[in-house]
Amino acid sequence: MQPISLDAIEAARARIAGTIVRTPLLELQGTSRPKIFLKLENLQPINSFKLRGAANAVAMLAPGKRALGVWTISAGNAGQGIAYAARAAGVPCTVVAIETAPETKIGRMQALGATIVRASFDACWEALERHTYPGIEGTFVHPFDDDDFIAGNATAGLEIVEDLPDVAAVVTALGGGGLITGVASAVRARKRGVRVFVAEPETAAPYARSLQLGKPSAFEQWQPSFVDGAGGKSVFPRMWERMRGLVDDSVVVTLDETRNAMRLLAERSRVIAEGAGALSLAAALSGKIGDGPIVAVISGGNIDLATFYEAIVRERR
């Protein structure tokens, strides 16, 4: 399976320019080696990179399909992106929300006009493969395995290379794989030789397991955690094929390392990141990525403040 083309990414950038924010790339202060830069996607209007892909995917739908309304499956951030884009297009949106989605994200999807249908993690994972869910009508927008969604995500990669031409490595959290596939496609198209990594929590690391086995595999020890926006139970075969040749390795981080990264972001950069958003920084700080400059994509900041407080205080004790 071919990477998303540079032409498609550039076209997506022009298409979504009026919707998304060109987010800043800031150096993390207080670290000497390696140099770490933060791509602050938590500053998007929905506080997540997902708006990039969602805006492009909804815009690319044929008018007749878009008029039927759209629906997606999400733990919260993709649902917000699709709801935001659907509202702008004046069409209804339904989100089949994974049962582990925090109430903060449920509330924000509803505030954007989405109808919420709650379902178990397994039911959602099956629906992602089938592209159908009982009782849901309209046009399905896949939250990661979709060329147009990935092309939208990839626009962040263009910005990274433009803002930091000497970037040596890029790391993002891994959920379904749409972010890393897009970012890696753009970065590698503009600058060959950049190392690309995904970060996974120890409780949900199917890509690391798949790399060990040499094929898309399930992570049998999966556990839910405050890192609700990343880490699945398995790697989709199509996403495995998409990531082959683009991703160098997976860095598995502990929950305590993730909490520490959340605290560092708050203390040094005054950034609030959700668990998934801090995974990339935890991986960059682990020493497993090598020399910098390293760009850690802070993918989102949608976290209940009580949960955020508990996480950073727990790490400090």
Mind sketching the topology for me?
Elements: H1 6-16, E1 25-27, E2 36-40, H2 50-60, H3 63-67, E3 70-74, H4 77-89, E4 93-98, H5 103-111, E5 115-119, H6 121-130, E6 139-140, H7 147-163, E7 169-173, H8 178-190, E8 195-201, H9 206-213, H10 237-243, E9 249-253, H11 255-269, H12 275-285, E10 294-298, H13 305-316
Name of the CATH architecture of the largest domain: 3-Layer(aba) Sandwich
| Order of secondary-structure elements | HEEHHEHEHEHEHEHEHHEHHEH
The CA-CA distance between the termini, in Å, is 47 Å
Please give the radius of gyration in angstroms.
18 Å
Largest sheet: 6 strands, mixed
Which structural class is indicated by helix and strand composition? alpha/beta
Number of strands: 10
* Percent range for β-strand residues: 15-25%
CATH C-level label of the largest domain: Alpha Beta
- Helix count equals 13
- Please name the CATH topology of the largest domain: Rossmann fold
The tally of domains stands at 2
Q: Give the overall silhouette.
A: globular
Low-confidence spans: none
Strand order, main sheet: write it out. Answer: 1-2-10-7-8-9
Helicity level: 40-55%
Chain-averaged pLDDT: 94
